[in-house]
């Protein structure tokens, strides 16, 4: 923890009232959605300008004070957790969309712009910001860039990094860099912009981002299909992709659906009960596209891959079908889930999922497993729910044992231990399952260049 002299120095760098020390603020801003680490920051500081961010970083660099960036705090890897007396730099007051260019189709955002705010802004301009996920209403652009957030539209639109035209960042020495300058084509050596995307604030802080926008999709339509077995999901994906361009292809198990149904907020998609479900979305821009989707559905039924299905006929029905998938995380949060966010190549998903499912069932038969994910891009979310009678510490301890076994399988499939949630503190000890020793050494060397005194989000990604 830092002393009162340093606190006074910090207060002098920002406007009055923009440094908080009360217990409630320290607790709220010192954590994210993970529950494995207790928040213990020294202070919360709220800069309003790039100049103030630079001043904070220069002060921290001189005084050797560790800084942790804080956005919407919706992360699931503890990358925004301040557990060791760090100063939290919260970007709530840097939340404006500063400029819009209709010809370049870009919006210049401060890091505290909420994802849904940018989506709404794009819609008002007749455009579309496609990076979307359940926490869009509270996650912030700076945090999305820091973790290279993915979400439900990756199969069509890719990850956050695909939509970042340019960045302004403050490095660990307080230097301001302007990266790529919003260019589409720029072949002038290393693209430092890409280093900061997914770096979780360990190289520096994003203080401004130029985000690309796209044309608005036309007549988005969703289908929910019930599958007889897991092995049918990939043939269904292939069948639809061969006929139409999908904007999403999601997967969830009957257990995941049961948790959502128990809330009573949304109707069941159809009467049939199936062990696995796929939710796919596409633009029904013409009658021919809609007919192709129905013909493909009929083909899947004939092949025995699909038992039942429904296609949205209105905007309300589209939203209800999506709720079946989007409400899963919130619904299971009450069961203290241990989350794993893993990925392999799309073709390997069925055997990969079966192998892990069998592993957990064998060693912990009393644990309830809820599967869902963006299966169209090879990303699966393994959620182990805590038994009600089990102590939380004991539960997390057993899950840590499961982690090692799960990640050994991930490594064998040449997969990733973190597909879209980042590494943070929850995955840093397992980084070697996805990255070689040489890669990790180079990553540490890169951090040393941008953050020579190790003040920028220390202890995240690697020790």
Automatic annotation (TrEMBL):
<dbReference type="InterPro" id="IPR016169">
    <property type="entry name" value="FAD-bd_PCMH_sub2"/>
</dbReference>
<feature type="domain" description="FAD-binding PCMH-type">
    <location>
        <begin position="37"/>
        <end position="216"/>
    </location>
</feature>
<dbReference type="InterPro" id="IPR006094">
    <property type="entry name" value="Oxid_FAD_bind_N"/>
</dbReference>
<dbReference type="Pfam" id="PF01565">
    <property type="entry name" value="FAD_binding_4"/>
</dbReference>
<dbReference type="InterPro" id="IPR051264">
    <property type="entry name" value="FAD-oxidored/transferase_4"/>
</dbReference>
<dbReference type="InterPro" id="IPR004113">
    <property type="entry name" value="FAD-bd_oxidored_4_C"/>
</dbReference>
<dbReference type="InterPro" id="IPR016164">
    <property type="entry name" value="FAD-linked_Oxase-like_C"/>
</dbReference>
<protein>
    <submittedName>
        <fullName>FAD-binding oxidoreductase</fullName>
    </submittedName>
</protein>
<keyword id="KW-0274">FAD</keyword>
<dbReference type="Pfam" id="PF02913">
    <property type="entry name" value="FAD-oxidase_C"/>
</dbReference>
<dbReference type="InterPro" id="IPR016171">
    <property type="entry name" value="Vanillyl_alc_oxidase_C-sub2"/>
</dbReference>
<comment type="similarity">
    <text>Belongs to the FAD-binding oxidoreductase/transferase type 4 family.</text>
</comment>
<dbReference type="InterPro" id="IPR036318">
    <property type="entry name" value="FAD-bd_PCMH-like_sf"/>
</dbReference>
<dbReference type="InterPro" id="IPR016167">
    <property type="entry name" value="FAD-bd_PCMH_sub1"/>
</dbReference>
<keyword id="KW-0560">Oxidoreductase</keyword>
<keyword id="KW-0285">Flavoprotein</keyword>
<dbReference type="InterPro" id="IPR016166">
    <property type="entry name" value="FAD-bd_PCMH"/>
</dbReference>
């Amino acid at each position: 923890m830092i002393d009162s002299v340093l606190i006074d120095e910090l207060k002098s760098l920002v406007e009055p009232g923009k440094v908080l020390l009360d217990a409630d603020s320290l607790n709220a801003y010192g954590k994210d959605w993970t529950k494995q680490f207790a928040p213990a920051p020294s202070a919360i500081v709220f800069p309003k300008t790039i100049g103030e961010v630079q001043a904070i970083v220069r002060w921290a660099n001189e005084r050797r004070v560790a800084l942790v960036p804080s956005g919407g705090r919706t992360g699931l890897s503890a990358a925004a957790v301040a557990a060791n007396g760090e100063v939290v730099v919260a970007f709530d007051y840097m939340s404006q969309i500063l400029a819009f260019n209709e010809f370049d189709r870009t919006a210049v955002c401060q890091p505290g712009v909420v994802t849904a705010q940018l989506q709404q802004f794009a819609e008002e301009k007749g455009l579309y910001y496609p990076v979307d996920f359940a926490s869009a209403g509270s996650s912030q652009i700076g945090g999305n860039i820091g973790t290279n957030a993915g979400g439900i539209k990756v199969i069509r639109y890719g990850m956050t990094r695909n939509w970042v035209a340019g960045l302004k960042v403050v490095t660990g020495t307080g230097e301001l860099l302007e990266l790529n300058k919003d260019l589409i084509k720029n072949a002038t050596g290393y693209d430092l912009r890409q280093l900061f995307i997914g770096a979780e604030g360990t190289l520096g802080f994003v203080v401004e981002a130029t985000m690309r926008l796209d044309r608005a999709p036309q007549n988005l339509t969703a289908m929910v299909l019930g599958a007889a077995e897991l092995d049918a999901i990939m043939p269904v994906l292939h069948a639809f992709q061969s006929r139409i361009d999908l904007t999403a292809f999601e997967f969830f198990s009957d257990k995941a659906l049961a948790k959502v149904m128990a809330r009573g907020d949304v109707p069941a998609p159809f009467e049939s009960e199936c062990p696995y479900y796929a939710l796919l979305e596409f633009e029904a821009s013409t009658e021919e596209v809609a007919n192709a989707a129905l013909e493909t559905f009929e083909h899947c039924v004939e092949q025995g891959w699909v038992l039942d299905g429904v296609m949205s006929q209105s905007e309300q029905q589209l939203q209800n079908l999506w709720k079946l998938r989007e409400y899963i995380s919130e619904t299971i949060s009450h069961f203290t889930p241990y989350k794993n966010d893993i990925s392999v190549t799309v073709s390997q998903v069925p055997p990969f999922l079966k192998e892990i499912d069998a592993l957990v069932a064998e060693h912990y038969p009393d644990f309830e497993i809820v599967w869902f994910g963006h299966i169209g891009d090879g990303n699966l979310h393994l959620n182990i729910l805590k038994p009600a009678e089990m102590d939380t510490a004991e539960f997390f301890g057993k899950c840590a044992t499961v982690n090692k076994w799960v990640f050994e399988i991930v490594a064998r499939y040449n997969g990733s231990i973190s597909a879209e949630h980042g590494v943070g503190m929850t995955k840093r000890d397992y980084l070697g399952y996805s990255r070689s020793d040489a890669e990790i050494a180079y990553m540490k060397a890169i951090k040393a260049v941008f953050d020579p005194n190790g003040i920028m989000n220390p202890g995240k990604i690697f020790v």
